[in-house]
Amino acid sequence: MTEIFTDRVRRIIAQIPCGKVSNYGIIARRAGSASGARQVARILHSSSAKYNLPWHRVVNRKGQISLAPGRGFERQKKLLEEENVFLDGNNTIDLQKHLWLGNDFDLYGDCE
DNA sequence: CTCGTGACTCCCG
DNA sequence: TCGGGAGCCACGA
Question: How far apart are CA A19 and CA A57, in angstroms?
């Protein structure tokens, strides 16, 4: 199989349930690199469209969209809203509700 | 092959 | 409390 960091990241992201979000740090850690948060972002940027990954379910540690307005911010925001994930006045996601830790218990989705 | 960059995070002042 | 700097690793040119 030769599982590499990139493949793991892609897989983890693909497992994020609908209506949930995760952050770069957690994904990186589960993928094998404790400090690979930036790589996760880079991989996402590189393979999100190609592998049909729910990139919009990945946000930064604070629960905010890291994308800058005009660079995909609105796109991600809209996609999240489509999954019942809304942002508060500060464009922050309620992590208490939507943060996905990777447990099977949280594998249920609000969509479908 | 080498260099630069990036949708981050943590630590320190 | 908030801001700035350094570290990290993979991928593209």
Answer: 8
Which pLDDT tens digit goes with each residue over A43-87? 998 888 888 899 999 999 999 999 988 888 999 999 999 999 999
Q: How far is the CA of A112 from the C1' of B13 (A)?
A: 50
Q: Provide the positions of strand B that have an atom within 7 A of a protein CB.
A: 5-10
pLDDT digit string, tens, across residues A1-60: 555 788 899 999 999 999 999 999 999 998 988 888 999 999 998 888 888 899 999 999
Q: How far, in Å, is the CA of A26 from the C1' of nucleotide B12?
A: 23
**Which DSSP string do the residues of A14-41 spell out, in sequence order?**
HHPPTT-BEEHHHHHHHHT-TT-HHHHH
A46 CA to C13 C1', in Å?
14
- In DSSP terms, A58 is beta-bridged to A22
Q: How far apart are CA A98 and CA A7, in angstroms?
A: 24
Predicted TM-score (pTM) of the model is 0.89
